[in-house]
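Exercise 7. Predict the joint structure of the components listed below.
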Amino acid sequence: MTTHVLGDTTVLLGRSLRHVVRSPDTIITTALMPIAFMLLFVYVFGGSIDAGSQPYVDYLLPGILLITVASGISYTSYRLFLDLQGGIVERFRSLPIARSSVLWAHVGTSLVANATSVAVVLLVAVLLGFRSGAGLLAWLAVAGILALFTLALTWVAVLAGLSARSVDGAAAFSYPIVLLPFVSSAFVLTDTMPGPVWAFAEHQPVTSIVETIRHLLAQQPVGTDIWVALAWCVGVLLAAYTLAALAYRRRFA
Amino acid sequence: MITVRGLEKSYGDLGVLRGVDLDVERGSVCALLGSNGAGKTTLVRILATLLRPGAGTACVAGSDVVTQAAHVREVISLTGQFAAVDDVLSGRENLVLVARLRHQPDPGRIADDLLARFDLTEAADRRVATYSGGMRRRLDIAMSLVGDPPVIFLDEPTTGLDPQGRGEVWACVRELAGRGTTVLLTTQYLDEAEQLADRIAILHEGRIIADGSLADLQQLLPPARVEYVEKQPTLEEVFLAVVGADS
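Solution:
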């Protein structure tokens, strides 16, 4: 049966991607909110925010990209929840297929859909004046970190989709994740924050990821931030994957 | 083909199945009759390897549903209580999807054959979301027949269908029986069991309390008396006559 894992996942991935292609609004709505935030911060708040020497749009883009992913993953739990509710997961599980492929197909779809949304947001940022002289290697590193971040949050979304009792619940878990970048160095320097908030902002995962991407795009050394960022992503990924696998098994015990 | 011995399943303190014994012969149609909450769906889900039994054993085509679940899934297919079809895909895409997942050669041809057999060719490229209840159920059953599995579970296949839809499902089951497929269907409708099944098992409060052919079960009651009753057409007969039974 294990010989089919890849083939079965590909077939189910194709199915799930068709869902995305046939409702392109999911890509648009995912990109819409981060674009709105970007406009708001660049043109409304940006003038009075001190972000150092670089143009503000260059400063805030990494945080905006993380918000894009954080809002995009809620569609994964939404689609997974509907599949579970509609009984099609039971149909798949009664077929002679690798059972894990049902979840991996949703995860793959999330990676593709979020990459598309991120590309849309990036394009708008360029229109707003974002420029980077970063080389191919730095861009690949940025893509890699964003992919890892998406993968980790997608498994959180899978866990939410498996445990939710209503469609609203399946999507609501992502709100705190969307808000996380606001209490970080994504939009403002953390120096002005009061003590406890500063401590939280400095040590929560978003800050290290934002700093890493920002330095990569600005062609500056990434320092230790990249290791902290990777540790957060891998840690969340492993924890969410383990819990999701348990929840999936328990659901059919 | 299906052998169940002492099967138990409980959720917390609630015993849903409390020692079920059941045998279904190869190529026969067995109706599992019971009211809502009798445990029919739980039994079918265990046989379809979707649930683990609490105690007892169940074998399908000689393979244990717990220890040889992968073998069991090769030979069975399940049509659940609610049509498990993908609304976003077309009818053809749904069938091709299952054919690919069953690792069949030439999924396109299998889909076309089944679409024709279930009178869905015209609707083949429409999204399933636009189908009527009867069409969804037909597609659902067609998806279960991909790859000709020798054992088919139908969980309340006619619940929620109009009389025409029900007639269509009945015709499907008869055709399956004609081809030698083993069918275990659950129903709460007595006439459905009477019409379709070679063997009827009555599941009540987690146990099989009666099991046999219709004639066997009839013998549980006092012998037939001859009565003269004026034969009125049933409402179903009237309904089908006025709307046209083949519509």
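Discussion. Chain A has a mean pLDDT of 88.
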